Amino acid sequence: MRSKQITWKSSAAISTLTILVGSSSCANLFFHFRNASVATISVATIQPLRSVQGNLTWVYALAISPDGRLLASGSYDKKIKIWDLPSNTLLYTLEGHGNAVVSLAISPDSKLLASGSWDNRIKLWNLETGQLLRTLDGHTDDVEAVAISPNGLYRYPR
Fold first, then answer.
1. Where does each WD repeat begin and end (predicted)?
2. Whether the Cβ atoms of residue 139 and residue 157 lie closer than 8 Å to each other
3. Are the C-beta atoms of 99 and 139 separated by less than 8 Å?
4. Where are the beta strands (DSSP E) in the chain?
């Protein structure tokens, strides 16, 4: 599965739309709302499939693992929530950023999460244990985008 994230500035309640395209002809839309909830909507039926709540404030970032099993949400409360989508269960709450978490990326093997924050830092997390692996300092401004290469060897920013 692959995902595409589209972000726009709007006065509407939805701040980001993530489209998860699977092997079937059906796509799922992941919305994260300013009321701190995340919803999944089936494009085929336009019916809500599920909603998860756990963040205390606005959700700014979403990432979906390539295998479609994990959903990560980052929010203004400085926390990252990791959800198991098949069971709709919260697996981990990752803490460590000093400001809002605004960007997330999951590695192709679904084992690593990169998070970027308004605290000018990138953090790398082990998705199998929820443990912080490394903090990358040195940015002089907000880290609003992170990415991991398709082969998993390179991360942006490095």
1. 52-93, 94-135
2. yes
3. no
4. 2-7, 14-21, 27-33, 37-42, 48-53, 59-64, 70-75, 79-84, 89-95, 101-106, 112-117, 122-126, 132-136, 147-148, 155-156
> pTM, whole model, 2 decimals?
0.70
Domain ranges of the chain: 2-156
Residue keyed to tokens 């605290």 = 119
Condensed to tens digits (0 to 9), the pLDDT of residues 89-129 reads 899 999 999 999 999 999 999 999 999 999 999 999 999 99
Which CATH architecture does the domain made up of 2-156 adopt? 7 Propeller (2.130)
Where do we find the tokens 């499939």? 49
